[in-house]
Amino acid sequence: MNVLISVSDKTGILEFAQALHALGIKLLSTGGTAKLLADAGLPVTEVADHTGFPEMLDGRVKTLHPKVHGGLLARRDLPEHMAALKAHDIATIDLLVVNLYPFEATVAKPGCSLEDAIENIDIGGPAMVRSAAKNWKDVGVLTDASQYPGVLAELKADGKLTDTTKFALSVAAFNRISQYDGAISDYLSSIQPDGSHSQFPAQTNGRFIKLQDLRYGENSHQGAALYRDLYPAPGSLVMSRQLQGKELSYNNIADADAAWECVKSFNEPACVIVKHANPCGVAVASDALEAYSKAFKTDPTSAFGGIIALNCPLDERAAREISKQFVEVLMAPSFTPEALEVFKTKVNLRILQIDLPPGGDTPWKQGRNAIDIKRVGSGLLMQTADNHELAPADLKVVSKLHPTPAQLQDLLFAWKVAKYVKSNAIVFCKDGMTMGVGAGQMSRLDSARIASIKAGHAHLSLTGTAVASDAFFPFRDGLDVVVDAGASSVIQPGGSMRDQEVIDAADERGVVMVLSGVRHFRH
Fold it and tell me: Does 366 lie in the same domain as 247?
């Protein structure tokens, strides 16, 4: 058996080659890899010696030769193929170990030039991988160091690879080539005539890895599956580990993502309860129990069967309180053993642990998408993600009254929550918790009325609350509704032709009004 090894990333390759040699497999290699193996005392043949043709053009041409591709592509079950190999003195290559030039890592570096990018486009590597993967029945092809242990174990046990293993390696190889070519296409398609890079390339090549089939889609007659980005960010939902519970459905994932993205926006201990993609309760507090208790008070009715996310460790005290309610999905960065013991009787409860990524004062921010994508008929809508964060210095006070420190804190909290509520969104808040949420209505007036009605159902007083509107008030009537309900301060983007009319109404009603300068539509 012959193996050709040509790797850019040399992680684990020496140990793997040593093990292959111990099994009697002959080693063939290129350039730096061959030197590494030879320096370790392994008997290795350089590709240039194998082909009788030297590397040329600064290494751009070294494996593009019939003695390489003939050895990879020849079908062992066809006598005419084997006769051709014999006639031209071409040995079969039974195992190929290749990983590609680091194009993705190169273009990810700040200041990468087009010249550097081009020089890191691998030619010979993908060509060999495709040849080996096409001829998978006769050739095993490895494209990642993670594959070495499994392949080695099988070779040691049986002296060969099974067809099942070789086919799986072939699929992985073609997937890797697809990912590599997609990255090249994305990068080159983003280059503008002036040399700058567009966030929206002329062609986009989605590269996603299937994680699991889901219980069903939005409805039980629909199938569904969950995929993750090829390079997922730490702290994102797709990096979660399910600790218990039944299979997840499409809606579970969609609502869990809404809850997780919202709770990540807070640095202090926070709890978010989501129902049908909208937060129905959000609160910050000193610990998980207090945050959950406050969030639950906002809308206990909607919280039934909801999705709960916490951005802090969940302990036994919080677990006992949460276990009193029917919950579909529960998420946190960690759970104490005592907390998990509490939930053991809730066998259907889906518990997801999403590890907190290391580093920084706000590590949650690392898990945010840079681009949002929405499917439309035969196409995609793409936009930069709404990752805008409002600072107190960004606010413009337009009313005669100025916010007190407590009001300012409530306004910023309300604004943060409104960003995650479907438009039109009206959110009443006070003392670090939501008091009423109006979501997804065609009329902003109706959203305001619904928010106050829900507060009444929860027996919460809206007196002295702060209100956030995700977009401007087109008329004063929306402001009047929230003030009539008890609001004493309002935050809104501004930008309406009738801004002054609304500001005058705020002064007339004796409430604080501040403008954010940005809106947070969420469709």
Answer: yes
Asked if residue 211 is part of any domain, the answer here is: no
Q: Where are the beta strands (DSSP E) in 136-221?
A: 140-142, 208-213
pTM for the whole structure: 0.88
Whether residue 409 is predicted with pLDDT greater than 80 in this model: the reply is: yes
Please state, in angstroms and as integers, the Cα–Cα distance from residue 103 to each residue in 109, 118, 185, 405, following that order. Answer: 10, 8, 11, 51
Active site residue 26: no
pLDDT tens column, 456-485: 999 999 999 999 999 999 999 999 999 999
Which domain, by its residues, includes 369? 235-376
Domains contained in the chain, number: 3
- Do 148 and 8 belong to one domain? yes
Q: How far apart are CA 200 and CA 105, in angstroms?
A: 20
Please indicate, yes or no, whether residues 354 and 425 belong to a single structural domain of this protein: no
Contact 104, 119 (CB under 8 A): no
Query: What's the CATH number where 472 sits?
Result: 3.40.140.20
179 and 286 housed in the same domain: no
Query: Among residues 376, 405, 434, which one ends one of the domains?
Result: 376
Residue 208 maps to a domain: no
- Least confident piece of the model among 194-198, 402-406, 470-474: 194-198
* Separation of alpha carbons 325 and 92, rounded Å: 65
Count of beta carbons in the 10 Å neighbourhood of residue 80: 8
The candidate with the shortest Cα–Cα distance to 300, out of 324, 330, 277, 320, is: 324
Q: Is the pLDDT score of 359 beyond 90? A: no
Task: Count CB-CB contacts under 10 A for residue 300.
Answer: 15
Host H or E run for residue 456: helix 444-457
**pLDDT of 250 strictly over 70:** yes
Q: Is the pLDDT reported for residue 360 higher than 50?
A: no
Q: Average per-residue pLDDT in the chain? A: 93
For residue 386, what pLDDT band results from cuts at 50, 70 and 90? Answer: confident
Rounded CA-CA distance 4/124 in Å is 13
Q: Do 367 and 405 belong to one domain?
A: no
Selecting among 10, 26, 134, 346, the annotated active-site residue is 134
One domain, residues 402 and 483: yes
Give me 243's structure tokens. 């600790």
Of 131, 157, 189, the residue at which a domain comes to its end is 189
Please say whether the beta carbons of 18 and 5 come within 8 A: no
Q: Is 134 a catalytic residue?
A: yes
Q: Please indicate, yes or no, whether residues 368 and 311 belong to a single structural domain of this protein.
A: yes
- DSSP state letters, 221-290: TS--EEEEESSPPTTSGGG-EEEESS---HHHHHHHHHHHHHHTT-SSSEEEEEETTEEEEEEE-SSHHH
Statement to judge: residues 128 and 8 lie in one domain: yes
Q: N- to C-terminal Cα distance for the chain?
A: 59
Q: Catalytic pick from 276, 297, 346, 365?
A: 276
- Report the distance separating Cα 4 and Cα 29, nearest Å: 5
Q: How confident is the model at residue 22 (pLDDT cuts 50, 70, 90)?
A: very high
